[in-house]
Amino acid sequence: MNALSRPLIDASPALLAEGYAWLPDRLRRHPDRVLRTRLLGRPTLAVRGPEAVRFFYDERNVRRAGAIPEPVLGTLFGHGPVHTLDGEAHRVRKEFFLPLLRPDLIAGLVEHVTWAWDEEVPAWTACERVVLFDAVGPVLTRGVCAWAGIPLDRADARSTARDLVALVDGFATLGPRHWRARRARGRLEDRLARLVEDVRSGRAAAPEGSVLDRLARHRDADGSLLDAGTAAVELLNVIRPTVAVGWFAVFTAHALHRWPEHRDRLRAGDTAYTAAFVHEVRRFYPFAPFLGGRAARDLSWRGERIPAGGMVLLDVYGQNHDEELWGDPYAFRPQRFLDRPVERDELIPQGGGDPRSGHRCPGEGLTIGLLEALAVRLARLEYTVPEQDLGIPLGRVPTRPRSGFVMTGVRTPAHAPAAVG
Predict the structure, then answer these.
(1) How far apart are CA 264 and CA 271, in angstroms?
(2) Domain boundaries along the sequence of the chain
(3) 361 labelled as ligand-binding?
(4) Which of 136, 255, 365, 417 lies at a 20 to 30 A Cα distance from 311?
(5) Dist. CA 252–CA 283, nearest whole Å
(6) Binding residues for heme, per the UniProt record (predicted)?
(7) What is the rounded CA–CA span in Å between residue 249 and residue 205?
(8) Which run of H or of E encompasses 301?
(9) Which fold would CATH assign to domain 70-291+329-411?
(10) Bigger pLDDT: 410 vs 12
(11) pLDDT digits (tens, 9 = 90+) for 158-177
(12) pTM for the full model?
């Protein structure tokens, strides 16, 4: 019996039960870091490592069109987004997102979010308890909407944030979280599609050069304007990942609580150390378990074959915890990123490859810039962490501390240096 004819048991139930641990546990048993299995009824090849990243992001090997399951499109990404395109269509649509790599736009988003944070924190000091996961969502929502040119009253920020958080929280489950995410996407897409139509008709104004302004004018590969629904999807694919930074912000607070020795260098505004700390948060804590694509042709990787149309998975969580790459992967040690440069295809919490030409998230720089600013602010914030369940269940995707990270007695220091960002 050859390799392709071996019967494969569908691993979907195990994936739903085991979450982040499912793929790393299986690849650990294979010294070549490659695994054949079956997922959602399809033959599947799972790979890991910098060479595998380059294999995965080569469009001659793996394509995104048709690869993302409908439950993920219906919640996290929406239908018809850039993530599902390949070739020229992907390149032209990606041109809208590429300016997000510019340092001035990153700085602008950081400025808007830190303004919202600094305005909101005094209200936390008046609260008996603050659940950081719930509190940071409206801050990020207000900041990114102001930056993107999307009108949003402060009173609406909380409900809008709940919907944006729901999109991320419900993409990897078939239960109530999933249906909550679908309903949230319907509300958000309807609202933003109307906004795009109003901008195009002149009934509403978009700040010149803003994300909203550029998206309303963007033309696809065929030269036509995006239909309002697709424009709404892509607008959400700018603001939704920014709000998803809330997961990393809570992980940052979790790290500062577990390893408080890192606070002093962050408080002092040590920019190199802050960058290293943020990279370590993104490496150490679980966010995306893996990324998927479809084999563009019959493929072979390290002796294992996958037919055209089969699934190819890149083990994100496993690679970020690979002992061969990181030495002591389950130790939280920011110093590792001061001792060595960050290699593009080694650290892949938001994918690998070149963001300008491939499918790596172009908003990764935004995530890093925001986390650097928020890490400093969290380190300078004074609060008490009461008894609570800070466990991070790996069976839940996306996961977070069970308690959401409760703080009591929040207070701002009387004198603090100017914060990064």
Answers:
(1) 12
(2) 70-291+329-411
(3) yes
(4) 365
(5) 12
(6) 361
(7) 32
(8) strand 299-301
(9) Cytochrome p450 (1.10.630)
(10) 410
(11) 999 999 999 999 988 888 99
(12) 0.92
